[in-house]
Amino acid sequence: TDVTINGETHKAIEATPPTRLTWKVRIPDDAWLRVHVGLKPESWAAEGDGVLFYVVISDGRSDEKLFEQYVNPFANQGERKWIPVMVDLAQYAGEEMNVIFNTRIGQPGRGDDRNDFAVWGAPEIITR
Q: I need a surface site. Which of 7, 18, 20, 112 has the fewest CB within 10 A?
């Protein structure tokens, strides 16, 4: 779906926590993962505890965390935007890998998991 955050629109995947989305891909030479993370504007005015976004890459035997970002635009107005992420995948060139997008509640045990409408914006693997 199209999601606009602070005037910037991206095709997005809604991922209200907890979520786990997996894509099996062959990683090209000189590859980068490009994605944006954010919480939809309806999260900004309603109390929530934010979302932990993270991406893992796996060959089926071992996993490596590529990226992790905690976002809470209710508490931090500076996070009321799309946050761009670029991760170098060159070390996995030529390999078939699972790229796993995850969201988790921001602060486990706090009990305020409402209103955290997480989105992954325009995820893609690009080459440079």
A: 7
